Amino acid sequence: MNMYKLPLIALALCALVSCKSKSTATATPKAPEAPVVAEAPEKPEAPAVQQPQMLTGKTERQELQTGTFGEWFNPFYASYRVDEDLVKELKPLLKDVDITLFMGTWCGDSKRETPRIYKIFDAVDKSDEIKLITVDRSKSTPQGLEEGKDIKRVPTLIFSKDGKELGRIVEYPIDSLEADMLKILKGEPYQHAYAD
């Protein structure tokens, strides 16, 4: 019987040890381990949005006031002194007049005159009505907005009413921007710098 006693004791001890580990497991449940989250790789810095060297097509004034374009637009705008007396005469004459400005962001004359033109039209509360079209060096746009407008030099500022052109200032004014605009809008004789 001794011979059976020893294996029975060993078996009882195994059962006891195995029960103990089961009761410990149920008495104090082990908290689930948090899943290991790999560190997110460093996000590469977003490249700066590059401004094009040249704008073409219908353009908003704000595009000229920012980035590399703003480097020339803003100083020319700030330094220009509007002729207040002529502006007072201009304001009533601009009623129902369409204003289209063709300019090149690559062109020195456009860089000088465009901000001045905007400053004058700001003074008469008409700058929001300017149809601004930027052209490439061949004076064209991808949409063909220059077609039928005879654009040979820029800037070209065109005044029209009821679909009929009243006159234009091409590249630079003869007297001053305000004086030239006034002649055109009053219907006085006026020829731009490149008129035949």
TrEMBL record:
<protein>
    <submittedName>
        <fullName>Thiol-disulfide isomerase/thioredoxin</fullName>
    </submittedName>
</protein>
<keyword id="KW-0413">Isomerase</keyword>
<dbReference type="InterPro" id="IPR013766">
    <property type="entry name" value="Thioredoxin_domain"/>
</dbReference>
<keyword id="KW-0732">Signal</keyword>
<feature type="signal peptide">
    <location>
        <begin position="1"/>
        <end position="27"/>
    </location>
</feature>
<dbReference type="GO" id="GO:0016853">
    <property type="term" value="F:isomerase activity"/>
</dbReference>
<dbReference type="InterPro" id="IPR036249">
    <property type="entry name" value="Thioredoxin-like_sf"/>
</dbReference>
<dbReference type="Pfam" id="PF00085">
    <property type="entry name" value="Thioredoxin"/>
</dbReference>
<feature type="domain" description="Thioredoxin">
    <location>
        <begin position="40"/>
        <end position="190"/>
    </location>
</feature>
